[in-house]
UniProtKB/TrEMBL annotation, chains A, B:
Location of region: Disordered: 466-488
Family: Belongs to the aromatic acid exporter (TC 2.A.85) family.
Protein name: Aluminum-activated malate transporter 8
Record's bilayer topology term: Multi-pass membrane protein
Organism, scientific name: Dovyalis caffra
Pfam families: ALMT
BP-aspect Gene Ontology terms: malate transport; monoatomic ion transmembrane transport
Amino acid sequence: MEMDQPTIQQKARHFTRAWGWVKALPGESKAKAIKVAKSTQKLGEDDPRRVIHSLKVGLALTLVSLLYYSRPLYDGFGVAGMWAVITVIVMFEFTLGGTLSKGLNRGFATLLAGALGLGAQHLASLFGRKGQPVVLGILVFLLAAASTFTRFFPRIKARYDYGVVIFILTFSLVSVSGYRVEELLVLAHQRLSTVLIGGATCIVISMFICPVWAGEDLHKLIASNIEELAKYLEGFGGEYFQPVEDGRNVKVSNTDKSFLQGYKNVLNSKSIEESMANFARWEPRHGRFGFRHPWKQYLKVGALSRQCAYQIEALNGYINSDNQARLEFRCKIQEPCTKMSTECGKALKSLASAIKTMTVPSSPNVHVENSKTAVNDFKIALKTVSLEQDQDILAIIPAATVASILIEIVKCVERISESVHELSNLAHFKSEEPTVSPDKSQFLRRGSIKPVLEGDTDHFIITIHGKSADSRESENPQAPKLGQRLDV
Amino acid sequence: MEMDQPTIQQKARHFTRAWGWVKALPGESKAKAIKVAKSTQKLGEDDPRRVIHSLKVGLALTLVSLLYYSRPLYDGFGVAGMWAVITVIVMFEFTLGGTLSKGLNRGFATLLAGALGLGAQHLASLFGRKGQPVVLGILVFLLAAASTFTRFFPRIKARYDYGVVIFILTFSLVSVSGYRVEELLVLAHQRLSTVLIGGATCIVISMFICPVWAGEDLHKLIASNIEELAKYLEGFGGEYFQPVEDGRNVKVSNTDKSFLQGYKNVLNSKSIEESMANFARWEPRHGRFGFRHPWKQYLKVGALSRQCAYQIEALNGYINSDNQARLEFRCKIQEPCTKMSTECGKALKSLASAIKTMTVPSSPNVHVENSKTAVNDFKIALKTVSLEQDQDILAIIPAATVASILIEIVKCVERISESVHELSNLAHFKSEEPTVSPDKSQFLRRGSIKPVLEGDTDHFIITIHGKSADSRESENPQAPKLGQRLDV
């Protein structure tokens, strides 16, 4: 359409637009500067270790640069000193594990490739002046192609990618350098010593000034992810079963709903968890994390948490759907559903805090059992749904779906609980003193009777495992309410 | 327990174990070698471009090395030529976009940092011999710390991370080198020319020998992800509503169930999609991908596909659950549910093929409409569920949940369809000739009447949009069956 209009008008419009843009420039750039400043501040406040890391890199680099600067290197390009600077820049990672992983990769790859390069040079020299470049060319080609291909193996990519790059680099440089072995040894000594200086500077600064441990970060991340799920589930009941008026939901609360969003980060946490676990393997013993800490188990817990997050994502679709179930049915299932969700949330919360404090998780079992009881209560509640409303199956479907997904979440939480218990075994979490006296604890062995730890008084919850809700009801007909408690 | 046993027995056991290990070594290493060979072969067969990429890197490196080797560099460490080798190794990425991104980052960062470094050196020289190292140290510290901090900005991390590293590197090297400006210019010239040689070699080989385009890969990935979802949904109906005998499902088919697993890759595709979109931005016009191809829209389609995959993950929990719904109810909903699922699958399949062939998607709308019709059919079908079975609400919940999740998937597919249409607009997909004659197409404008394109004869599906199933039934009481077709 615009093509048909006169060009002069177009030009004028362009000019006006450009002028407007120029006029707006100072204001805009000011706004932009403020925005950048704010996001910078936020980045730093979110994790002050970022600021410290930046200062650490600056410090390492300044130290190494001045070493380089102060040495009498004016009689050349100062190659050797340069390598110290380069080493610091490429090696210094945010976490100590990352720094060590890069450093060790660099070290081993350089040594191996250096030796191979010397061998290649020696081999090539046997073919005379004319044959030498050809043989060297073939060797470099073969080794570079083969090494590059190994980078496609997922395991090598994850752990040794940097090492392979340095391997190709060093091999090419050494084999092609054309130096004789004696000269090379001097150079290698020079280069190795400066690389060592650079590497040691990185490691020392990284390790002794506010170290950032990848393992600890992974540990905290797994715990906080579980906590995000817990927050959602604890809040879900209140959010879904809001007070209803005139058949429509009344949004009474304008409070912070951020707890409904936190789980979304868990959905995409796979790659970051894997890279952290990978770095964590290189880290030395620190704090309560031993040398053979079961980092793989963290990945398992993480995978199960993601599984739970997927279910929550499905659940979340129903939280504000217009297609709300009929009031009566909702009232019937409100109590057991809220209980399922809340108990799952509590179970996850205590699992998260068990991970955080590295204690053997105990109380979560109670909440898992409670949530299972709630599942049974839900089944019983359904029996009492009055019969004349059979026309309304359609109306109860969304609420029924919510309940059904919650039942899946209960299963999921049980699996998370098992995997966290396994983790606590493998990682030798410290066990807390049991809060029940020995004579009571023999009851606990029977599996179905669990102490309630959160109360002040001693309670036991008796869950009678029955395949169907029927059997349960007949065994315990006088107690159709939730979480039957038997004061001891 | 083991600690209590005699140590001699322990030692003997250790020895036996070690000996067994030694004996098994040749066999094991042979098995391992075969395993590695097989996985190597698989890697190459899965994507032959990996082999080609490795050969390309080998070629580039050989060319640059020989250039370096053949030049008379024996009178020094051959620093300049070395930079060509280093450039090739760090710059050569699998995709052209990756290579270009690194090359441009490297180029701009080097120039900028070089200029700043010279300035810093000049500034420092004003402070005399004693002040110079102090001033230089402070400058390097400040710049390195500030630059390192910028790497925490997600946008900079995604696009310019390598540039920032090279910036710090070059600035430190230049500012600390201690050369006078005239000398530096000579060196800069030398270094820049060799870096250019290395970079140009990479780009030429990367671009002209079997180029791998990140953009094309992203395009194909998005299409194939949608296809995986389609496969699942097309197969779901048959899998869930298997023939039932004696109240238990009979697993008649031992056929390939891989279609049930494909969607799992979609769950974690976020990071790879983002990095590809990031590389794609740097790529020049190629094939049907213009310079301003809407890569962001691909990310939107990808996000919606993931959303759908999360729903499928929730659905997948029910596919083999023991808790199967009562037969009669299942029979009632089988037809509409299978239809919902199949039509969603077909819609996604045609969307995927529209993306692949870069044509404006047309027929998907029909399938989306069909799936919506199936949702209505489902609602009608529920009305006819007989009333005496009201005790069994519990038994129908799993099947009802499946239906409810399928309804969510229908909504999700509709959103995917919309975003693919938007993509086809933004990316100027070519439009196919309409298969309906003009006089019929005016019907189509009314929105609710859509042509069925898959058949040979001309059909129209009339979907009467009504808020509730009731209104629909009263408007069209004689046609309670699925997909009312009106032969024209």
